[in-house]
Amino acid sequence: MVRKVHKRRAGGASDPEAAAAVVMVLYITDSGPNSIRAVANLEAICREHLQGNFRLEVIDVLECPLRALADGVVVTPSLAKLSPLPVATVVGNLSDTGSVLRALGIAE
Amino acid sequence: MIDPKRGTTQDLPKIATGIQGFDELSYGGLPRKRITLLNGGPGSGKTMFALQSLVGAARMRGEHGIFVAFEERPRQIIANAAGFRWDLPALLKRKLFFMDANLSPDVVQSGEFDLRGMLAMLKAKKEEIGAQWIVFDGIDVLLTLLQNPKSEMREIYRIRDWLADNEVDAAIFTAKIDAHGPGPANYGFLQFMVDCVIEFDSRLDCGVALHRVQVTKYRGSAFARGEYPVSFGPAGMEIAGPEPTEIRQVASSERVSAGFERFDTMLGGGLFRGSSTLITGVPGTSKTTLSGKFAEAACLRGERTLFVSFDEGADRIVRNLTSVGIQLKPHLKSGVLRMYSGRTESVAAEDHLVRLKALIAEHRPRCMVIDPLSAIAKAGGLAAARSVANRFIYTAKDLKITVVVTAINESDQPESEASDLQISTIADTWIHLSYLIRGGERNRALTIIKSRGTQHSNQVRELILSDAGPVLADVYTAGGEVLMGTLRWEKEDEERAKTIQRRSEFDQKRASLEFAEAETRARIKSLEQDLARKRIELETYFSDDQARTLSSSDREQSLRRIRSADLTARAATATVTSPDKHSGSNGSGNPGRKSKSEPRNGP
């Protein structure tokens, strides 16, 4: 799946060949406090649990609302895990790390 | 600004929904550029109301809309509305947009979220399609997800501000909020924030679901208070709005035939155009026949006619009426007549009314029959059926349709109708059919109980069904009893015999009188002959007497001549008593005779 990346806050995969890389899209609204918190929380999770083995696309819904609509976003912030399957969605500022990890398929 | 109609300050601007009845009870529709909350339990019709408002706006005024579905999937909502004549697929192409805002059960929630993103998406979509209406369906589901009262309030106010900033013409929230229920989540702030609250209610009444709608709040505007029945027809939801308190129907003085001549005569010339007639009676008293005859007469005049029957198929009715000489088939074929047969068990009275209105709109009849209207009370409450019957009659009057409805009475007393559907009070004409059982027979009697504005007959007539249709016959009352059927025939025979007898008696009497007259005449004749005879006799006698008098005076003269007596005195006497002076006059004859006889007797 090819997606245009609008904002890259977290670093890409250090090893592009990694098959088990987690592919995620985070939908935020630029200035919202929940969004700022969500980005910070996700960065921490990636740093601690994914060791760089992930790809994250951050989309500002204020900038491309019709795309977000097409992607089925309802509320923000909203995190979609596209790979590995199954697809999972987490809504909220991602403050509950445990539930985010479960949704990403990463055992505690 | 003063509204001349209501004499109060101008209400806030409104936007019509196109939902029949609602725009009337809200005096114009939903508040423009404000939020309306539709509140009610599951299946109470709030989602349909919201969607129908969007559809109405799109179809009536070309206003586009967005439907945000938090609770039901858009697919489901569209499928539910497929039964209505809304042409939804065409609207979905350009005019209506559904946003699936369901958070699937698989969605994991981690911390707080907000609606900034959603509103940004809606704004983009609004600008793309030029939407003026927006519906948030199931906003309570969203509020529940927010989990904390502060966030709930914050997000609702966020929506409100967004609506104001984006100049949305009309916004509708739907929710299932039990304001009196237990639990903290009664969302009082939501009720306060919106400008218009409409409560939806669905309950079971005698096994039939009754839908009701009630406006409980309308900031800055008057509205019709109270609950109004809701029904679902082919055009969607319909609300039986408040009836106009003033009756403005124009009374026609044109008469239409009630079916057959003698009946029309009884009614003083027929039924008034646009009037309503109620025929009551226990089962089997020919209510259908009478109304069928009315329908046939209307068809023969070429007037479009609608015949609605309940619990009996149109085919059977046509066949049964044919047996009494009423031919409806040719009119069905030509399309002048439309027949509709409905089932009544488990159909709410309100739904019948919707169906009737749809039929009227389709067929545009000038004359209409409902047989029996009382059947609508079969399922559901009597109060609802009464209201429907009333509204039907008023609808028909508004449309100037001449209506004949029948009602089955439980008892043979016409007064019992008053306790059933109570149509008799609003019907213009009330005809009661009853059975009279006398002499081992059951005969039908027809009475006109009332007929407004008409010199109608107050006599009971016997209704006889023949191959040529219904016929009315006089009834006899004898000793306070009404005679019908065989007893009537007997009575008629008796009357005929009596007439013959009277005539012969008369003839006899006349003959005897004539005889007496002739006899008297004969007697008069013989008496006259007698009289004539006597007269002749008298005259004969008189002339003899003269002759005698003359001869005696001759003798006297001759004596005087002999004795030379005074002649002059005797001559004078002779001239007075001369016979030519007396003849021809009988009356003066007697004294003449006396004066003559004196001198004669003297000597």
List the helices and strands and how they pair.
The complex is a heterodimer of chains A (108) and B (603).
Chain A: E1 22-28, H1 33-50, E2 54-60, H2 65-70, E3 78-83, E4 88-91, H3 97-104
Parallel strand pairs in A: 1-2
Antiparallel strand pairs in A: 1-3, 3-4
Chain B: E1 14-15, H1 22-25, E2 30-31, E3 35-40, H2 46-61, E4 64-69, H3 74-80, H4 88-94, E5 96-100, E6 108-109, H5 116-129, E7 131-137, H6 139-146, H7 149-165, E8 170-175, H8 188-193, E9 196-205, E10 208-218, E11 228-233, E12 236-239, E13 255-256, H9 261-266, E14 271-272, E15 276-281, H10 287-300, E16 305-310, H11 314-322, H12 329-334, E17 337-342, H13 349-363, E18 367-371, H14 382-398, E19 402-408, E20 429-438, E21 441-451, E22 461-466, E23 469-474, E24 476-478, E25 481-483, H15 485-563, H16 568-576, H17 579-582, H18 589-601
Parallel strand pairs in B: 3-8, 3-9, 4-5, 4-7, 7-8, 15-19, 15-20, 16-17, 16-18, 18-19
Antiparallel strand pairs in B: 1-2, 9-10, 10-11, 11-12, 13-14, 20-21, 21-22, 22-23, 24-25
Helix pairs in contact in B: 6-7, 13-14
